[in-house]
């Protein structure tokens, strides 16, 4: 039976999202902010984060998938492309987790082709142990060293996205 070790509670997530939302609202005041949620994992995080941002902004989605079980296949497949025009706009990529960093590196390179004014990254979890590429998170809600994380949108083979808090999964 899998075990779920609570790492970050619902209350802690709520408190941290309020802070990050306020910071984004200040930093992007007078900018043309577009949040791009990376599906599927970011759907819960994005839904809560957007409601903590007090300035006008638009929302779009991009789909990227590479994990099977607890490891990356190394093949990042784009399952959806953004619909909005991104040229000359201020893009904030919203991700559930940066792990090896390969997904966000590839997405950043892809979005750059649309000639945005700026691109930054907001991640719920910045996890360090398996990092393979040099890429920085601009807005990090929680920093973790290791573990395989589920809940609050994050899955293991498509399950456990519905858990309300953030857990370390022990298989
Ligand atoms: O930094 P990396 O090692 O590339 O890992 C991070 C990516 O992996 C997960 O996506 P996944 O492939 O599981 O797709 P999902 O969002 O649909 O679950 C996660 O949502 C990130 O997009
Ligand atoms: O720790 C993780 N949990 C869930 N999905 C992931 N995708 C990359 N790392 C993880
Ligand atoms: Mg996944």
TrEMBL record:
Highest taxon above the source species: Bacteria
Q: State if Iron is listed as a keyword.
A: no
Q: Name one GO biological process term.
A: guanine salvage
Co-factor requirement: Mg(2+)
Main subcellular location:
cytoplasm
> What sequence ranges are listed for the domain Phosphoribosyltransferase?
11-156
- Name-wise, this protein is Hypoxanthine phosphoribosyltransferase
According to UniProt, this protein's pathway is: Purine metabolism; IMP biosynthesis via salvage pathway; IMP from hypoxanthine: step 1/1
| EC number assigned by the record | 2.4.2.8
Sorted alphabetically, which keywords does the UniProt record give? Cytoplasm, Glycosyltransferase, Magnesium, Metal-binding, Nucleotide-binding, Purine salvage, Transferase
Family to which this protein belongs: Belongs to the purine/pyrimidine phosphoribosyltransferase family.
Kindly state one GO CC term assigned in the UniProt record. cytosol
């Amino acid at each position: 039976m899998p075990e779920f070790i609570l790492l970050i509670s619902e209350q802690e997530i709520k408190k941290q999202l309020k802070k990050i939302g306020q910071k984004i609202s200040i930093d992007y005041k007078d900018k043309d902010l577009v949040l791009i949620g990376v599906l599927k994992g970011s759907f819960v995080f994005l839904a809560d984060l957007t409601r903590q941002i007090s300035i006008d902004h638009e929302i779009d989605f991009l789909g990227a998938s590479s994990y099977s079980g607890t490891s990356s296949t190394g093949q990042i497949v784009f399952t959806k492309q953004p619909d909005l025009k991104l040229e000359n706009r201020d893009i904030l990529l919203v991700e559930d987790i940066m792990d090896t960093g390969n997904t966000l590196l590839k997405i950043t390179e892809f979005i750059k082709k649309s000639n945005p004014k700026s691109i930054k990254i907001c991640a719920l979890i910045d996890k360090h142990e398996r990092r393979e590429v040099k890429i920085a998170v601009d807005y990090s809600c929680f920093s973790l060293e290791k573990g395989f994380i589920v809940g609050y949108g994050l899955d293991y083979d498509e399950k456990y996205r519905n858990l309300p808090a953030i857990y370390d999964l022990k298989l």
